[in-house]
Amino acid sequence: MTGKGIDAEAGRRERTDAARNRAKILAAAEGIVAAQGVQGLSMAEVAAAAGVGVGTLYRRFGDRSGLAYALIDAREREFQQAFVAGPPPLGPGAEPGERARAFLGALTDRTVEQLDLLLMAETAGPMARFGGAYDAYHSHLALLIGRLRPDADAYCLADALLAPLAAPLLAHRLRGCGMAVERVKSALDDLVTRVIG
User: Fold this and answer.
1) In the chain, what is the greatest distance between 2 CA atoms, to the nearest angstrom?
2) Nearest CA-CA partner of 41 in 123, 122, 110, 120
3) What pLDDT tens digit does each residue of the chain (197 aa) get?
4) Domain limits at 172?
5) Are residues 14 and 94 in the same domain?
6) Among 14, 46, 62, where does a domain finish?
7) Of 29, 56, 66, 134, which is most buried by a Cβ count within 10 Å?
8) Residue 62 zone, left/alpha/beta (φ > 0; ψ -120 to 50; rest)
9) What is the rounded (10 degree) CA torsion for 44, 45, 51, 57?
10) Model-level pTM?
11) Which residues have a Cβ under 8 Å from the Cβ of 7 and sit 6 or more positions away?
12) Cβ atoms of 71 and 64 closer than 8 Å
């Protein structure tokens, strides 16, 4: 084997090890957040739970905030894959109104699942909620609304449907007001019916 082949082999092994470490770190961090909340997410505790050095954690994620964003990103990719290419009614194959209802219900569950992490992310700055995932949600809903009501302002209506799922508002309703998640979902279903007819 040439020197170049050895380097390629070492590079593949390193990428495999890095991917395995990343998965272990994210699993450990998810476990800590589930048990203790975001406030319990310390780099030292995550490193110990994952069986890696603290330096590895800092090199890969930068800081606690970077680790939190990685947790959000991993779950976000799964969610987007589900509504873009998963089975109906969330994915393609169902009629637009049914897909919009399924999407908002699934987004409610997805937001509740990582509410503390999303609160941290969405309140990091005045425009922190927008861009990235929000744009994907908005485009998806605007497309569904446009198919059902070509005459409507699908752009603004998509914002109206997403507004109740802002992490700070949802946390206030669920935790501060004691509202049940099912009540939020029911109201969103009603809102979809009123928006799309």
Assistant:
1) 68
2) 120
3) 444 555 555 556 557 888 888 999 999 999 998 898 888 889 999 999 999 999 999 999 888 878 888 888 988 999 999 999 999 999 999 999 999 999 999 999 999 999 988 888 888 778 878 888 999 999 999 999 999 999 999 999 999 999 999 999 999 999 999 999 999 999 999 999 999 87
4) 64-197
5) no
6) 62
7) 29
8) left
9) -40
10) 0.79
11) none
12) no
Write out the H or E segment, with its range, that includes residue 143: helix 132-148
User: Is 33 found in the same domain as 90?
Assistant: no
3-state secondary structure 13-75: HHHHHHHHHHHHHHHHHHHHHHHHCHHHCCHHHHHHHHCCCHHHHHHHHCCHHHHHHHHHHHH
**41, 62, 83 — which closes off a domain?**
62
Strand partners, 94: 92
CATH of the domain at 11: 1.10.10
Per the document, the length of the chain is 197
Q: Smallest Cα–Cα separation from 140: which of 101, 171, 182, 194?
A: 101
* Lookup result for tokens 């198919």: 147
